[in-house]
Design goal:
128 residues, mainly beta, 4-stranded antiparallel sheet, 2 helices, 8 strands, 9% helix, globular
Length: 128
């Protein structure tokens, strides 16, 4: 396994392709909380809404939109309108790291000393 992992070019351990599917509100308990999932939406759909339930945010999840969040911490769902839709999802799974005996990532680490660099203006977030 170690030999194969030397040639793996992604920081993510897993990928999934989801076609034309609505997703009920859920969290991803097999993912580490500090890892952020990346989802890219493509297709001919007209209206898709991603709901980040515990954050109180509804995103218009149109063609070409990329979303990143902690699937373990953020409860999420997707409502689909008309048209075809494909989502390419990259994510981490603890079981893959445990099996391969590779270290876990530390993507979401921060320190209070650098917290002032990550402040957001309310205008940075748009609700649909």
């Amino acid at each position: 396994m170690y030999h194969c992992l030397q040639h793996w070019v992604s920081a993510y351990s897993s990928a999934s392709i989801v076609c034309n599917r609505q997703s009920p509100s859920h969290c991803d308990p097999k993912c580490p909380p500090e890892a952020f999932d990346i989802l890219t939406c493509i297709g001919s759909h007209k209206y898709v809404v991603m709901n980040l339930t515990n954050l109180g945010i509804n995103l218009l999840y149109n063609l070409g939109v990329m979303v990143s969040y902690s699937g373990w911490l953020v409860r999420h769902s997707v409502r689909v309108g008309d048209g075809d839709r494909i989502v390419w999802a990259w994510f981490m799974q603890d079981s893959v790291h445990n099996y391969a005996r590779t270290p876990h990532t530390e993507f979401a680490k921060y320190s209070l000393a650098t917290y002032h660099l990550a402040r957001y203006n309310q205008a940075d977030f748009v609700r649909y």
